[in-house]
Design a protein that fits this description.
The protein has four helices and nine strands, in the order ββααβαββββαββ. The strands form three sheets. A five-stranded parallel beta sheet has the order 4-3-7-8-9, sandwiched between helices. The two termini are about 20 Å apart. Bound molecules: adenosine monophosphate.
Length: about 170
């Protein structure tokens, strides 16, 4: 089964010039979801993981599935103002202006070995901020793990020193 057959390209979403990689067809197929999960787990095999951090919102789907399979806790990282308990946050630069990612203050314990997961690695700004957030709480980023990497956007340059792993590369 080819996972890429379940990724739908949407030209011009959410704005002109962006080729959006839509994972809805993948989620809509239990067989493709199972195969994608198998391949994501293959990327982290033999690594000890204490927590899986998933990035809002499409990092939640496979992030929770990976955490269940590894029998560890899942931690949601969200956009500002969404989490109800006390949060810690990390600012990062966008093309114009800044944005923020947030996590609950009690989600990561010092020394936790963390797998960071999101659906797409694009410019790497989000993943870099999430890694900093994890580290600010004393967590160790064991791997940054994605369904797909858009290689032409050079997101890996922002994540130097981290183990980057992806099921698909474009
Ligand atoms: P970036 O910070 O540029 O690496 O962007 C990563 C975040 O934006 C991820 O949470 C992705 O879900 C989303 N994203 C960026 N580019 C795309 C794309 N072409 N298709 C789907 N999602 C994307």
């Amino acid at each position: 089964m080819e996972i890429e057959n379940f990724i739908r390209d949407i030209q011009g979403f959410p704005k002109p010039g962006i080729l959006f990689k839509d994972i809805a067809p993948l989620l809509n197929s239990p067989e493709a979801t199972r195969e994608c999960l198998r391949q994501l787990l293959q990327l982290v095999k033999n690594k000890h993981i204490d927590k899986v951090v998933g990035v809002e919102s499409r990092g939640f789907f496979f992030g929770t599935l990976i955490a269940q399979k590894l029998n560890v806790g899942f931690v949601p990282v969200r956009k500002p103002g969404k989490l109800p308990f006390t949060t810690v946050s990390q600012l990062y630069d966008l093309e114009y202006g800044t944005d923020k990612v947030e996590m609950h203050i009690d989600a990561i314990q010092k020394g936790d070995r963390v797998l960071m997961h999101d659906d797409v690695l694009a410019t790497g700004g989000t993943a870099e901020a999430v890694c900093k957030l994890i580290e600010s709480q004393g967590g160790i980023v064991v791997q940054c793990n994605f369904i797909m990497t858009l290689d032409f956007l050079n997101g890996k340059d922002k994540l130097k020193g981290y183990d980057i792993a992806s099921v698909l590369n474009y």
